[in-house]
Amino acid sequence: MGKRKVFQCLEEAVAGCALVVKNGGVVVYPTDTVYGIGCDPYNDLAVKRIFTIKGRNEKKPLPVLTYSMQDAEKIVSLGRTGWTLAERYWPGALTIVAPIIDRRMSPRVMSGSSSLAVRVPDNNCVLLLLKHCRYLVGTSANLSGERALKSAQEVLDSRLEGYDALLDGGTVENGIESTIVSVEGKPKILREGAIKSREISHLIGRI
User: Fold this and answer.
1) Which of 117, 154, 166, 178 has a CA-to-CA distance to 172 between 20 and 30 Å?
2) Residue 152, H or E segment
């Protein structure tokens, strides 16, 4: 891909950003938590670029953003617990790790695991992008080990390089990464983020 492009969060511009994704590109975009970096999760070469750009260990799996709960159910088996959590928190700052059912996805996304982390974000800008793409790798747009970024300007000012397009959706107010819950086997909270663990545990206890 050529020089990276900056798109504003307008319908026509987002469609252009979606074309970058469909052509195997890597894009940076806003979510409801922090700015994310992603690509088509079915494109193995594009997924490999995400690891390279972030300096991320390839043994660490990548989450995937989806447009809707119905789209999520096409790639993972949410089960009763996952379905209840998704119904309560999606769109929102909860990532659910569930058994994968779509094996066409790049194996790099799962990093050898039989499960996949999925989320429907609560941000109109990235949802507009997902309306075109349906699925996007959804990891934070920063070098591994560095702080998450909250605005397009922070991304441009950072040391993150090698992506093809940046979708400028302004400043993300939250700035806290999503909470991660595994529903593979006994439900387990893997990371506390924007949603408190006690709130998740309380809901799981009622299922």
Assistant:
1) 117
2) helix 152-157
Cα–Cα distance, 19 to 40 (Å, whole number): 11
Q: Is the pLDDT of residue 180 over 80?
A: yes
The helix/strand/coil state of 21 is: helix
Q: What are phi and psi of 66, to 5 degrees?
A: -125, 160
Q: Is 125 within 8 Å of 68 (Cβ atoms)?
A: no
Longest dimension (CA), the chain: 52
pTM of the model: 0.94
Q: Which residues contact 165 (CB under 8 A, 6 or more apart)?
A: 4, 5, 6, 7, 17, 20, 25, 26, 27, 28
Query: Phi, psi (5° rounding) for residue 64?
Result: -125, 130
Name the pairing type of β-strands 27-30 and 94-99: unpaired
> For 122-159, how does the pLDDT look when each residue is reduced to its tens digit (9 = 90+)?
999 999 999 999 999 999 999 999 999 999 999 999 99
Tens of pLDDT, residue by residue over 18-65, are 999 999 999 999 999 999 999 999 999 999 999 999 999 999 999 999
Give the class (CATH, top level) of 5-206: alpha beta
Contacts of 162 (CB under 8 A, 6+ apart): 26, 49, 52, 53
Specify the 3-state DSSP secondary structure of 169. coil
